[in-house]
Write a structure and sequence with these properties.
It contains 6 helices and no strands. By secondary structure, the chain is mainly α. Helix 1 packs parallel to helix 3 and helix 2 packs antiparallel against helix 3.
């Protein structure tokens, strides 16, 4: 496991979270999640600038986004497989999560 707060951990956390969303969420959900997520990524990058080693950590957020764009063909191939084999909807999957009732019309 990587050290808490390390630049590498920040990179992998951001990269893997975006990958997970792109592969697993429905297209309808992605249409509103991705713009919100990009705003959150920008906010995180700006917040890291206020911390120790902030420039490096902020850069890792942008590196994660860049690497996601480069990996998009592979992610989309994996998404196609996952979505084809999917048996549970987003609504079924997240219905017991906090605040889901506020979002269920979009999922």
């Amino acid at each position: 496991s990587l050290a808490e707060g390390s630049a590498e951990k920040i990179y992998y956390n951001h990269r893997n979270n975006i990958t997970m969303l792109l592969k697993n969420r429905s297209l309808q959900a992605l249409l509103w999640i991705v713009p919100i997520r990009m705003i959150m990524e920008l906010g995180a990058a700006l917040l890291y600038l206020t911390k120790a080693d902030g420039l490096k950590k902020s850069g890792m957020v942008f590196r994660a986004l860049r690497d996601q764009l480069r990996a998009m063909p592979t992610i989309l191939r994996k998404r196609r497989t996952i979505q084809t084999n999917r048996t549970v909807s987003d609504q079924q999957l997240f219905q017991h999560q906090p605040f889901f009732h506020l979002l269920k019309r979009r999922c």
